[in-house]
Structures are given as structure tokens and as C-alpha cells.
């Protein structure tokens, strides 16, 4: 961010400062320290992000604008009423939150992702800011920053329901979602876990409204093509043409759960893929052909033959001893085994 545009000059050290932004040497003024962190995120980050913040002062709040302008005020914490302290705490949290928002926008610029020239006003953004101001835990503030950034870039990414649900969870639930739920879900939100896995985290996630138990079956419109579902950037689950697929225990992320998973960009890693494959093998016993297709399978494939996993080049990765080398070969073999009775 150019110093000319921001009109600030600042360096972070415990004992020395320069320019218009001053850090207290005794470290008691938390609001000023939060402001310094925000300014540092803007000063050291992309000029594009800095300009976006300057264009958005009316949206992100006057205190942020004042900090960007380089203005500071002495805030005496002693002898204040409880209400004043609560207001101050919220302002500190909100300012810290916006420093993480700036960092998230800088990451997007580094990854050549598009960011807006200006953050537009919206009820969702104000709601996220408000919820973030109520917490001081930095991990939660980072989570709210990711939500805020995605919503600012793509309005409608986060629903009001998701914002409200997130405001009610604790660090334990965040850990469960990030480590025990989201890594075992595909791009449709289907949750794949094997029989001997602990169901307790799932029940907790269900209580909060992140996952549900529903009889949902996924089909493709064309019965001659495999049903392809992303597991991660290099693993694609391909289901035998005509068959619907679903987890045996029928757990699927709710809309809020899928929104958060997509925002956090949590996908199965190789250690999760192994567990997912086992769960798919168990579930494939119950997969069936949709009656809507009006087709006949000449020779019913065994459960383990009802799916393959390919890489992004459509080469078969699982099963390793598969007779098919590519998704095209898998589909061709299936099409020869399918008899279309008549079109409905």
C-alpha cells in the first residue's frame, strides 16, 4: 500500500515509533495495539488491498477510517463504567478482526484472485463484523475474517443462518469440524466415514446444525455417463453410470456446513481418502439404479466395481488393480453393459 494514499508512516517495534501512529510503551492500550496491527497489515500488504479499504471506510466503520488516516486518541481504561469497557472491548476485537480481513485480501491478491475495488454495504457483512466484535479468541477472529472476505468478494456466499450458527460454537466444535467432519466430505457435502469410527463428533455437529441425516441420493441426468464428484483437487470419485450414490449412514452437510467447508477450503487429504474409500465400499452394497432411467443392467457389477477414483487427468488411481486405465474405458465398459429400454 503506498504511503501517499494512506498518509501514514509506521514501524512496529516494542519501544520506538515514528509518524502519526503511536504505540504506548507500557503496552496497556489494547485498542491502539489492535489499530497498529491493522495499519501494519495494510502498510506491508498489497496496494490494491489498501486502496480497497480506503474506498470502503463507510462500510467497514469510522474507527477503521480514523486509524487509516493515522489519527489516534488516548483511551484511559481506569475509572470507566462496565458499559464503556464492553464497548471498548468490542472495538478492539473489531479492529483486530479487520487486520485479519486485510491479511485474507492480501492472500487473494498473491494468488491472483479477484477482489473488489470497494467493499459494498450489506446486512451480512455488518452481521459478521458484529459477531466478530464479540470474541477475542484469535482463531475465531481469523475464521470470521475468512467469512467476511469471501462474502465481500462474492455476496451471498454466507447465509444469515450460517452467521448465527457460527456465533454459538466454541473452539472444540471448530476443531471437530476442521479435523473430523469436513476432511471426510465430498464436494456435494456427503460425509464418508467407516463403521468403526466414533459417531460422537457427528452427533455434536448435528446438534449445532452443520450436518444432518437425510435420505439423499445423487444421480446424473445422463445414465450413460459416470457420476463424477470431487473429493479434492487430485481425486475424483466416479460412480458407475445409472447408479445413485449415497453414504450408508446417510449423513450430509447442511447448507451452512457446506458453506463453511467451502470457505475454509478443507478437502480430504490422502490419509482421509483411505478412510473414504472404505466407507464407499461399504455403502456401494446399497447403491441402485434409478427407476427414472428405465434401463437394465445386463450384469450387475460387484460393489467394488461400482466406482473408481481418478486423478484430474481422468486416469484411474483406485482400485490399483483395475482393468480400466481411464474414466473413458470405465464408461465404455458400462455402456456396453447397459440396455436402455426406452426414453421416458
Please describe what this structure looks like.
The chain is of the alpha+beta class and about 350 residues long. It is about 45% helix and about 10% strand. It has 14 helices and eight strands. The strands form three sheets. The chain has a four-stranded antiparallel beta sheet with strand order 2-3-6-7, with no helix packed on it. Strands 1-4 form a two-stranded antiparallel ribbon. A two-stranded antiparallel sheet has the order 5-8. Helix 2 runs parallel beside helix 6 and helix 10 packs across helix 11. The longest helix is centred in the N-terminal third of the chain and has 29 residues. It is elongated, with a radius of gyration of 26 Å. It starts with a helix and ends with a strand. The N terminus is likely disordered.
The residue-averaged pLDDT reads: 82
Strand order of the largest sheet: 2-3-6-7
User: What structural class results from the helix and strand content?
Assistant: alpha+beta
What form results from the Cα inertia axes? Answer: elongated
Major β-sheet, in short? 4 strands, antiparallel
Strand content: 5-15%
Q: Give Rg in angstroms.
A: 26 Å
What is the number of helices?
Answer: 14
N-to-C SSE string, H for helix and E for strand: HHHHHHHHHHHEEEEHHEEEHE
- Termini gap: 61 Å
The low-confidence runs, each spanning 5 or more residues with pLDDT under 50, are 1-28, 71-80
Helix content: 40-55%
Structure summary, number of beta strands: 8
Describe what is shown at a glance.
It contains 14 helices and 8 strands. It has 344 residues and is α+β, with helices and mostly antiparallel strands.
Amino acid at each position: 500500500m503506498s504511503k501517499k494514499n494512506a498518509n501514514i508512516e509506521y514501524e512496529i517495534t516494542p519501544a520506538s515509533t515514528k509518524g502519526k501512529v503511536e504505540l504506548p510503551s507500557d503496552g496497556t492500550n489494547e485498542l491502539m495495539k489492535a489499530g497498529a496491527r491493522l495499519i501494519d497489515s495494510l502498510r506491508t500488504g498489497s496496494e490494491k488491498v489498501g486502496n480497497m479499504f480506503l474506498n470502503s471506510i463507510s462500510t467497514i466503520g469510522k474507527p477503521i477510517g480514523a486509524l487509516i488516516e493515522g489519527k489516534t486518541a488516548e483511551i484511559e481504561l481506569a475509572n470507566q463504567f462496565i458499559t464503556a469497557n464492553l464497548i471498548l472491548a468490542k472495538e478492539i476485537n473489531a479492529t483486530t478482526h479487520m487486520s485479519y480481513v486485510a491479511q485474507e485480501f492480501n492472500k487473494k491478491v498473491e494468488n491472483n484472485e479477484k477482489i473488489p475495488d470497494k467493499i459494498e454495504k450489506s446486512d451480512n457483512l455488518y452481521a459478521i463484523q458484529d459477531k466478530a466484535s464479540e470474541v477475542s479468541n484469535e482463531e475465531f477472529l481469523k475464521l470470521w475474517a475468512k467469512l467476511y472476505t469471501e462474502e465481500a468478494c462474492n455476496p451471498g456466499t454466507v447465509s444469515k443462518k450460517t452467521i448465527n450458527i457460527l456465533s454459538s460454537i466454541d473452539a472444540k466444535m471448530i476443531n471437530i469440524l476442521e479435523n473430523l467432519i469436513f476432511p471426510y466430505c465430498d464436494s456435494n457435502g456427503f460425509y464418508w466415514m467407516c463403521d468403526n469410527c466414533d459417531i460422537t463428533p457427528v452427533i455434536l455437529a448435528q446438534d449445532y446444525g452443520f450436518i444432518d441425516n437425510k435420505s439423499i441420493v445423487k444421480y446424473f441426468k445422463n445414465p450413460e455417463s459416470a457420476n463424477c464428484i470431487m473429493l479434492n483437487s487430485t481425486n475424483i470419485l466416479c460412480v458407475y453410470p445409472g447408479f445413485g450414490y449415497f453414504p450408508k449412514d446417510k449423513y450430509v452437510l447442511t447448507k451452512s456446513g457446506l458453506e463453511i467447508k467451502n470457505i475454509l477450503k478443507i478437502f480430504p487429504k490422502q490419509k482421509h481418502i483411505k478412510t473414504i474409500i472404505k466407507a464407499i465400499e461399504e455403502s456401494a452394497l446399497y447403491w441402485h439404479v434409478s427407476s427414472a432411467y428405465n434401463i437394465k443392467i445386463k450384469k450387475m457389477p460387484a460393489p467394488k466395481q461400482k466406482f473408481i477414483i481418478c486423478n484430474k487427468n481422468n486416469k484411474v488411481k483406485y482400485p490399483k488393480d483395475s482393468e480400466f486405465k481411464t474414466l473413458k474405458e470405465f464408461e465404455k465398459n458400462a455402456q456396453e453393459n447397459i440396455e436402455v429400454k426406452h426414453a421416458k
